[in-house]
């Protein structure tokens, strides 16, 4: 793979054209091969970039500008359509190179299964890793209709890899009873329905630790993000998600990588979801990359 140019010509607003001098690398993981309801998240990374042209580069929340963070947009990894295992292997190999080069990996999905190989690669570099997970769904299944490679399984895979006690899920409002029972039995932190308040309480215990943050856009209520594959009523507001991102920014947590997944533009003709995602990317980058 080449890193001196993007895979595609479309880049996030303000991106640095030089890989070598960039601290952050934005990369797309256009995969929706295993979704159980509606496909379309493979088009999320491209649309998030496209709508970023309308985004202000200044954050009034953080009093920082995107120009203060050098980031390279590598475009989308050319994943083989319909081949989950090969796609996951390619993503993991890609992220390993980013980490070897000292880059901050910032992934855009794609279905949530794409987070699994990324976290596996990050864990190899940071063996005391913790994961903060924002989502409507537990994603703790071992398989979906007999298939272990499913967008309903990534957090279970992560928990079994790094230890359930090192996984902190917020905003959860959907999942099988067995998933909730497994989490409780194994000491995994799950905050049902809420995000900001419970997050503020646990951030001090993560102080100084390397943390990977994965955000499924469906943690937001469908009123704020209808453009996603599996909408689920009763979610949080975009204001609360922004406040939660800023709470992490203001903590002593060492964020070492992140992703934003499950934006499916075809289900939102207003483009509200993609525009919200674009703003979230700005706040995550400005708040988490010091």
From TrEMBL:
Mn(2+) binds at residues 112, 135, 137, 139, 216, 218. Its EC number is 3.5.3.11. Its cofactor is Mn(2+). Belongs to the arginase family. Agmatinase subfamily. Catalyzes the formation of putrescine from agmatine. It catalyses: agmatine + H2O = urea + putrescine. Pathway: Amine and polyamine biosynthesis; putrescine biosynthesis via agmatine pathway; putrescine from agmatine: step 1/1. This is Agmatinase. Keywords: Hydrolase, Manganese, Metal-binding, Polyamine biosynthesis, Putrescine biosynthesis, Spermidine biosynthesis. It holds the Pfam family Arginase. The lineage of its organism: Bacteria, Bacillati, Bacillota, Bacilli, Bacillales. GO terms for molecular function: agmatinase activity; metal ion binding. It is an enzyme of class 3 (hydrolase). One of its GO terms (biological process) is putrescine biosynthetic process from arginine, via agmatine. Binds 2 manganese ions per subunit. It comes from Weizmannia acidilactici. The gene is speB_1.
